[in-house]
Design goal:
There is one protein chain. By secondary structure, the protein is an alpha/beta fold. The protein folds into 3 domains: 117 residues, Rossmann fold; 227 residues, tm_1862 like domain (pyruvate-formate lyase- activating enzyme); 60 residues, OB fold (Dihydrolipoamide Acetyltransferase, E2P) (Beta Barrel). It is built from 14 helices and 19 strands. Strands 2-1-3-4-5-6 form a 6-stranded parallel beta sheet, sandwiched between helices. It is globular and about 65 Å long. It starts with a strand and ends with a strand.
C-alpha cells in the first residue's frame, strides 16, 4: 500500500510529519508525495485555533471524498479524540501527538480492514531518535526540534493539554542530526520547540541552550544557526552572551511577548516584566540584532486604554519584525470562561491598527538598510530569473526576502554578500557583490 501525507500547522508539526514518513520507510512501506497515487493518506493536523482546525478537517473530508483511507494525526486527534470519530465515521485510524511510534500498528490494522486509535490521554512525547526524517521540504534550511511540550499555562493556549510537559532531546542527538543535515547540503538550521529557551532544564537541571549552541557552532560547513520561540523570562545573560559571541548563531531573536500591559499579561498568565528593558538589553549586548515578536489583541477584558498601551509600546520599541493576532476563544483554556470577550469587529480593528503601525516601522527599518551590505542565503529563483534570498535577519516563511541580481551563478544554500539598493515594507532588493 502506498502512503502519502498532508501536513498542516507549524514547523514543529512539519518535523513530526517527516518523522512519521521516516518510521514508515524504516518499516518498508512505500511513501509517495502524490495523494492521488496513495491508498492511505495521513493528515497531520493543527488545532491551535479554530481556523486551523477548519483547514485540517477540510483536508480530511476531501481525502475521504477521493476514496482514500485516512489516518488523522497531530493536535486535532489529540484534542477531539471521541468527537472526531463520531463526526467522521469513515476515518481509518487515529494517533495522538505522543504516539508517533504507534503509526505502524494503525497501518497494519488498516491492511486488515480494522479501525484503530492510539491516543494517550496525558501525552508524553518521545522523539524517535532511531528514525531518519524523510524531508518533505529540502532546501538551504532545515528545522530541528530540540524539545516538545510546554510547562507554561498561558491563558489562551491549548498546547500544554495537547503536547504534554516539556521534554528535551539530548545535546549529542541534536548535534548528530545537525551534522547529517549539513552532509545533505543544509547550510542553516533552525532550532524549534514550544519554547526553545527552556531547553535542557528537564534533562540537565538548568538551561542548556547556550551549551547546545556552542556545540552546534563547531560543525563544519554549517553557516547559520537560528533560534525561534524564546520565552521572555528565560532570556538569561548566558543565553544572550552566547547569541552575541558565537559566529554561526544569527543575530536574530524571536521572542513572542504577546502584550505589554501588566494587567493583560497577568490575565494571560505571562511574565509581567519590563519588556522595554529586556529589548534594550538585547540590542545593547547583541550589536545589530533583529528582534521579532508576536502580539495578541482583543484578549478578554482588554480595554481601549490597554490596547493603546500596547500600540504605544510597539511605536516606542520599533520591533524589526512583528506579527499580530486576534485572540481566538479556545475551549479548555484559562481564558475561555473569562468575562469581557470582545466582538470580532473590535479585535479586527485593533489588529489592523497595530499592523499598519508596524508596516510603517518595517518600511523605515528596511529603508535604513539601503546602501548597506548584508549576508544573505540563496533560496531559489523567480520565474524571471531573479535570485530569492533571505538575510540573517529573516526567518523562512514568516519574514521578508531579498530579491537580488548577479552576474554569476549561485546555488541554494550559498551565503553571499548583497548590496541593498531598494526597500519596500517587507522585502529588500539588491545586487550580489562579485
Amino acid at each position: 500500500m502506498k502512503i502519502s501525507l498532508i501536513n498542516h500547522g507549524c514547523a514543529k508539526n512539519l518535523v513530526d510529519a517527516e518523522l512519521m514518513l521516516g518510521i514508515l520507510v524504516k518499516e518498508g512501506y512505500q511513501v509517495t508525495l502524490d495523494d492521488n497515487d496513495a491508498e492511505i493518506v495521513i493528515v497531520n493536523t493543527c488545532s491551535f485555533i479554530h481556523d486551523a482546525e477548519k483547514e485540517s478537517v477540510q483536508s480530511i473530508l476531501e481525502m475521504i471524498e477521493a476514496g482514500k483511507k485516512v489516518v488523522v494525526t497531530g493536535c486535532l486527534s489529540q484534542k477531539h479524540n471521541q468527537e472526531l470519530k463520531e463526526a467522521i465515521p469513515e476515518l481509518a485510524g487515529m494517533i495522538g501527538t505522543a504516539n508517533l511510534n504507534d503509526l505502524v500498528k494503525v497501518i497494519k490494522d488498516i491492511e486488515k480492514e480494522k479501525f484503530s486509535s492510539y491516543i494517550d490521554e496525558k501525552p508524553k512525547y518521545t522523539y524517535p531518535e532511531d528514525v531518519e526524517r524523510q524531508q518533505i521540504t529540502m532546501g538551504a534550511s532545515s528545522y530541528i526540534k530540540i524539545g516538545e511540550g510546554c510547562n507554561y499555562k498561558c491563558g489562551y493556549c491549548v498546547i500544554p493539554n495537547l503536547r504534554g510537559k516539556y521534554v528535551s532531546r539530548p545535546i549529542e542527538n541534536i548535534v548528530n542530526e545537525a551534522k547529517s543535515l549539513v552532509k545533505k547540503g543544509v547550510t542553516e538550521i533552525i532550532l524549534i520547540a514550544q519554547d526553545t529557551s527552556s531547553y535542557g532544564i528537564d534533562l540537565y537541571g538548568k538551561q542548556a541552550l547556550p551549551k547546545l549552541l556552542e556545540e552546534l557552532n563547531k560543525i563544519e560547513n554549517l553557516s547559520w544557526i537560528r533560534i525561534m520561540y524564546a520565552y521572555p523570562s528565560q532570556m538569561t545573560d548566558e543565553l544572550i552572551d552566547a547569541i552575541a559571541k558565537l559566529d554561526k548563531v544569527v543575530k536574530y531573536v524571536d521572542i513572542p511577548l504577546q502584550h505589554s500591559h501588566p494587567r493583560v499579561l497577568e490575565s494571560m498568565r505571562r511574565p509581567v516584566m519590563d519588556y522595554r528593558e529586556l529589548i534594550n538589553k538585547l540590542r545593547n549586548k547583541i550589536p545589530g540584532v533583529s528582534v521579532r515578536t508576536s502580539l495578541v489583541v482583543g484578549y478578554p477584558g482588554e480595554s481601549e486604554e490597554e490596547f493603546e498601551h500596547l500600540y504605544n509600546f510597539v511605536k516606542d520599541v520599533r520591533f524589526d519584525r512583528m506579527g499580530a493576532f486576534e485572540y481566538s476563544k479556545e475551549k479548555n483554556t484559562y481564558s475561555y470562561p473569562l468575562k469581557g470577550h470582545l466582538p470580532a469587529k473590535v479585535k479586527k480593528e485593533r489588529r489592523n491598527k497595530l499592523m499598519e503601525l508596524q508596516q510603517q516601522i518595517s518600511l523605515e527599518n528596511n529603508q535604513s538598510r539601503v546602501g548597506k551590505t548584508l549576508k544573505c542565503i540563496v533560496e531559489g529563483y523567480t520565474d524571471e530569473g531573479v535570485i530569492i534570498m533571505r538575510s540573517e535577519y529573516d526567518a523562512p516563511e514568516i519574514d521578508g526576502v531579498v530579491y537580488a541580481r548577479s552576474t554569476r551563478q549561485v546555488v541554494p544554500g550559498d551565503i553571499e554578500d548583497v548590496k541593498i539598493t531598494k526597500a519596500d515594507e517587507y522585502d529588500l532588493f539588491g545586487e550580489i557583490i562579485d
